[in-house]
Design a protein that fits this description.
About 70% of the residues lie in helices and about 0% in strands. It has about 325 residues and is mainly α.
Length: about 325
């Protein structure tokens, strides 16, 4: 349908909607995440400085904080990838746990390779079930996550396994830098990345699930290496809670269609700084979990508010 126009001028169809934010690149990230980016960077710097001088062993505290941040950032970016494609993956905590168990059998770089191969295998399974067969993503990945948890209990004893050969500390920093650069590069190119966006919807979802499994596997391996202990269940449950909180705070929509990988990386620093501060304040593990759950609910509410405020609005009628 077109609008009437003065005589002698062509008819021009009216615009249907007016986008509320830019649709590509880092400009879109700034518009979508808003002032959070600057606040997160400030909190990150303050948190690192405070934690570096807090406690009797400052360097150990700083190392634990950076290690936890890296794990949460890897896991958060892994969650954000399929979530932005409207295909949430609830098996990633199980993938992280099982990859950590696989790492414990070799340790070092060989254990890292084994853990990543295991993670990729589970990612391919989810990709085939969800991306290619078209099964419901949340229910399917919840089921595969439960299967992984049960398999972990069968592979390792309930008491867990000790890790004799952990990864060098430089690997943690290297992985954090790598995932940050990848997040910036992917977000700078387009909403879903130039590599995967031309793919059909099913293949795009499949690619997101494989990438998410690899990132979750790296997070689980780093956690196992840091703790020097692999547990068959429960050790990665906090990753799921902290990861979802970081994803939503960082600007990724819980209902898909928009993501900010850079925001997820920065928000992971905020979540880990809060968790570390609560631990220093002698808050119990149960109390930390309750507060993280409350933070997740607040982030969900903020996500709905952002969706309402940035919804497409009809353009003003031409005069």
């Amino acid at each position: 349908m077109t609008q009437p126009s003065p005589a002698g001028q062509p008819l021009v169809p009216p615009p249907s909607v007016r986008p509320s934010t830019p649709s590509h690149g880092l400009v879109r990230d700034v518009a979508g995440v808003g002032p959070f980016v600057g606040v997160a960077l400030l909190l990150m710097v303050i948190g690192l400085v405070v934690l570096a001088v807090a406690g009797p062993t400052p360097l150990v505290g700083l190392g634990l904080h950076v290690g936890g941040w890296t794990q949460a950032a890897l896991f958060a970016v892994g969650l954000a990838l399929p979530l932005s494609a409207r295909s949430p993956d609830l098996s990633l905590a199980g993938v992280a746990m099982f990859s950590g168990l696989a790492f414990s059998y070799g340790g070092g770089l060989s254990g890292l390779l084994l853990g990543l191969v295991v993670a990729a295998m589970f990612g391919v399974v989810n990709a085939a079930l969800v991306g290619l067969l078209g099964l419901h993503p949340a229910i399917t990945t919840l089921a595969t996550g439960l299967v992984l948890t049960a398999l972990g209990g069968m592979v390792a004893s309930p008491s867990g396994r000790q890790v004799e050969n952990p990864l060098p500390g430089a690997i943690t920093v290297l992985l954090l830098v790598m995932v940050s650069l990848i997040a910036v590069a992917v977000d700078a190119m387009s909403i879903f990345g130039r590599v995967t966006s031309p793919l059909p919807d099913g293949l795009h979802r499949a690619a997101m699930h494989v990438a998410a499994a690899l990132l979750a596997g790296m997070a689980g391996i780093l956690q196992t290496s840091t703790m020097r202990f692999a547990a068959p269940a429960g050790s990665t449950s906090w990753l799921l809670l902290a990861g979802f909180a970081a994803v939503l705070i960082g600007g990724t929509s819980a209902f898909g269609g928009y993501r900010s990988l850079l925001g997820a990386v920065l928000a992971a620093s905020f979540v880990m700084s809060m968790q570390r501060a609560l631990t220093i304040a002698n808050v119990t593990a149960i109390g930390v979990t309750v507060l993280l759950g409350a933070l997740l609910l607040v982030a969900l509410g903020a996500d709905r508010l952002r969706a309402f405020l940035t919804r497409p609005r009809p353009a003003a009628a031409p005069r």
